[in-house]
């Protein structure tokens, strides 16, 4: 297949480009490099540009006969979305609408959307399945839910089929050591703890130790980056083969606490570092874990690296190899 990956120079997108290439597909990456890195795109054609640029998109879709599009070009920081909602609605919703409109005009019918379990807001129960109510509590979650609704309408009106994959935390790094996670600033827990282990960070803070969980710290869902990408590939293949639009939740099924992550990092790295117990942050639920049973049943997805230790070991190998600054 010939596939367009938007946001393919970012953390998830770059791993996806590699997986598509190794699966024998022809990949074109479109990225404005606002949060991605040109050197992370190891395979296929790279185009620097923005999905807001209708003329550029028209040109790309006229030059290439794409079989499908994968979308990783959203802004993803919850706190930033609260401070700058206009930026999030413009990029995550308006710019995605531009891309979808070009796809519809070009007759490209298969779209894989990197959604989020943040569309559910404060969970009524965990693990969260697809029947859970959708009540996002921040602009980031709202923007993703809006796109899901747009996709439903585009399917009804134009026959554009989509799969939305909702997950919380991609983690780990490419098992070959070619790719990994690097954000400036870094906001994700596992790389932050690894920075403390490598000495790039003085300490790590735990925000709240009195939650109703076994060890008092928040429980979150982590999926290895390669397992995440394999689900996207299965969803793409299903759509291109004539599958219908679907939405899937994706998680590890049980979650890991903040202390689990810290303790596992110490075990994997044989490093000691200071841990600061800080007050709770507003809006942090005690547990956020997604249910993947439907995804597993429909597409046959199963994680290759389900355990936290492997996720952290791969991320630690990346941290040691590059020690990004």
Distinctive features:
325 residues, alpha/beta, Rossmann fold, UDP-galactose 4-epimerase, domain 1, 2 domains, 7-stranded parallel β-sheet, two-stranded parallel sheet, 10 helices, 40% helix, globular
Descriptive report:
This protein is of the alpha/beta class. The protein folds into two domains: about 1-170 and about 225-250, Rossmann fold; about 170-220 and about 255-320, UDP-galactose 4-epimerase, domain 1 (Alpha-Beta Complex), CATH 3.90.25.10. Helices cover about 40% and strands about 15% of the residues. The chain contains ten helices and 13 strands. The protein has helices at about 10-20, 55-65, 80-85, 85-105, 140-160, 190-200, 225-240, 260-270, 295-300, 310-320, and strands at about 1-5, 25-30, 45-50, 70, 110-115, 160-165, 170, 205, 220, 220-225, 245-250, 255, 275-280. The strands form four sheets. The protein has a seven-stranded parallel beta sheet, with helices on both faces. It has a two-stranded parallel sheet with strand order 7-10. A two-stranded parallel sheet has the order 8-13. Helix 5 links the parallel strand 5 (about 110-115) and strand 6. Helix 1 (about 10-20) crosses helix 7 (about 225-240), helix 4 (about 85-105) packs parallel to helix 5 (about 140-160) and helix 8 crosses helix 10. The longest helix is centred in the first third of the chain and has 22 residues, at about 85-105. It is globular, with a radius of gyration of 19 Å.
Ordered list of secondary-structure elements with their pairings:
Blueprint lengths: L1 E5 L4 H12 L3 E6 L13 E4 L5 H10 L4 E4 L6 H6 L1 H22 L3 E5 L24 H20 L2 E6 L2 E3 L17 H10 L4 E5 L11 E2 L1 E3 H16 L5 E4 L6 E2 H12 L4 E5 L14 H7 L8 H15 L3
Parallel strand pairs: 1-2, 1-4, 2-3, 4-5, 5-6, 6-11, 7-10, 8-13
Antiparallel strand pairs: 9-12
Helix pairs in contact: 1-7, 2-4, 4-5, 6-8, 6-10, 8-10
């Amino acid at each position: 297949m010939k596939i367009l990956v938007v946001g393919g120079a970012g953390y998830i997108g770059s791993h996806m480009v590699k997986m598509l290439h190794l699966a024998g597909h022809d990949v074109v990456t479109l990225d404005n490099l606002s949060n991605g890195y040109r050197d992370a795109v190891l395979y296929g054609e790279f185009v620097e540009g923005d999905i807001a640029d209708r003329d550029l998109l028209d040109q790309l879709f006229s030059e290439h006969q794409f079989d499908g599009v994968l979308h990783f070009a959203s802004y993803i920081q919850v706190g930033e979305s609260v401070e700058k909602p206009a930026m999030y609605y413009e990029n995550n919703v308006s710019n995605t609408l531009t891309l979808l409109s070009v796809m519809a005009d070009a007759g490209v019918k298969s779209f894989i959307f990197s959604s989020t379990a943040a569309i559910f807001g404060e969970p009524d129960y965990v693990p969260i399945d697809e029947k859970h109510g959708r009540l996002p509590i921040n602009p980031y979650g709202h923007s993703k839910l809006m796109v899901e609704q747009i996709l439903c309408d585009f399917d009804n009106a134009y026959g554009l089929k989509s799969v939305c994959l909702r997950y919380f935390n991609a983690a780990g790094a490419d098992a070959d050591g070619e790719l990994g996670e690097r954000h400036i600033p870094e906001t994700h827990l596992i790389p932050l703890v690894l920075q403390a282990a490598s000495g790039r960070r003085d300490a790590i803070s735990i925000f709240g130790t009195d939650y109703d969980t076994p060890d008092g710290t928040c429980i979150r869902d982590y999926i290895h980056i390669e397992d995440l990408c394999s689900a996207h590939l299965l969803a793409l293949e299903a759509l291109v083969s004539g599958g219908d639009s679907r939405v899937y939740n994706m998680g590890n099924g049980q979650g890991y606490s903040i202390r689990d992550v810290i303790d596992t990092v110490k075990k994997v790295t044989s490093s000691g570092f200071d841990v600061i117990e800080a007050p709770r942050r507003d809006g942090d639920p005690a547990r956020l874990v997604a249910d993947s049973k439907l995804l597993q049943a429909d597409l046959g997805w199963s994680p290759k690296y389900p355990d936290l230790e492997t996720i952290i070991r791969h991320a630690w190998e990346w941290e040691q190899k590059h020690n990004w600054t």
